[in-house]
Amino acid sequence: MAGHLSPTPPKTPAPGASTSKQARATTSKKPLTLHHTTIPPPHLAYVDELPTSSIDKYMVIDGIAKGGYGNVYEVRVKNKILRRWALKKKNREPLLKITNPERREIHALRNIKNEVNVIELADIVGEPGMLSPVFELCSMDLFHLVFNNPFEISRENKLSIVKQLLNGLKAVHFRGFIHRDVKPSNVLINRHGIVKLADFGGSIDTQHERQTHSKVVTNGYRAPELLLGDINYTNRIDIWSAGVVVAEMWLRHYWIRGVSEHQQLAEIFGFCGFPTDKEWPDMRFLPEFPTVKRKFPHFQCSDAARRFGEIFGVGEDKAVDFMLHVMQLDPKKRISADEALAHPFLEGVKDDVKSILDNPDLDTFC
Tell me, which fold does domain 139-350 have in CATH? Predict the structure, then answer.
C-alpha cells in the first residue's frame, strides 16, 4: 500500500555482541581497581573527608627515621614547647593522590583508641594529595634496641616487651583488625618504657573488607600459610610474626631468612619439620603446596622443641612450650594473643621496660 514505509529492520548483532548501550558502555570501561593510588575501598573513603590541621601548625625539630614510604619527623605545635610529637610524611608522588596505606593507618587508629600498647593518633595534617598522621613521640623501636645497641637486654625486660606486644595485638584483633606487618621496627617504646605497636598502613579491617591476596607481611615474618598462598588467612598471621620477633630478641640477630618465598618456607620447615596431613590437614589445599612439595620433596623431621631450647637456653621449658604454641604451622592450632598472654611463660611479668631507658649508654631517637 502506498504511503506506508516498512520499518527498517534492525541490524542483526554479531554473535556474542550486546544490543544494550549500557552494556556496551560498561564493557568498554576498564574495571575499577583498588590499588593504593586509585579508588579506596568503600569503608575507607570517609578518611579523605576528615577534618585536618594545617602543616603550618607544627614546627619540625629533627628527623627521626627514613624509609621507602617516607620520613618521620619530631615536631611540636608552634608556641607550645612542652610536648613533642612524631609526624609521618610520605614521599611525594607525581600523581599527588591519597593512598590506601594512608587511609588504612588512619582508619585503624581511629577505631583502636585508648589502648596502652597501640600507638596514639593525635592529629592528621592535610596537604594536597597527602594525609600525614601525627603520633605520640616514642624514644626508640625494637629493631634499634635489639640489633643496634651493644648491651644485653635483661630477661625481665624481654618478657615485658613480649607481654606488651601481645597486649597490643589483643586490642587490634578484638576490634576486627589484622596488623599484617608485625616486626621489630614497628614495635616502638616510649619514654615511660611502654611498648607501642605502630605502622598500620598495611592493616585490614576484616569486618568491612575481605583479603584478596597473600602478599602481605615482610618476608622474614610471614606465616607459612601466607607463603603457601592462603588468602583466607586470619589474625593468627600476626601471632606467627610476633613469635619470630620473640626469637630474634633472644638471638640478637635475624632468625629465619630465605631469599625467596619458597626458600623462606624451606627455612621454616627445616626448623619446625614438614607437617604431616594429621598435623596440618588443610595445607594440601593451599595454592602453592604442589610447587613446594615438588621443589622440596625430602624434608626431614625436625625436633622443634630441641631447636627452641637452643635459642632460649637451659631450663627455659616454659619459653619452649610458649614458642611451640605460638609457632604452630597450622594456623587453626596456633594460639591467640589472649591465650599467649595467659601462658605461664608470661606469668607475673611487669608492664613496662623503664629500666632500659635509664641506661646512659642507650642510643635513642630523641
Answer: Transferase(Phosphotransferase); domain 1 (1.10.510)
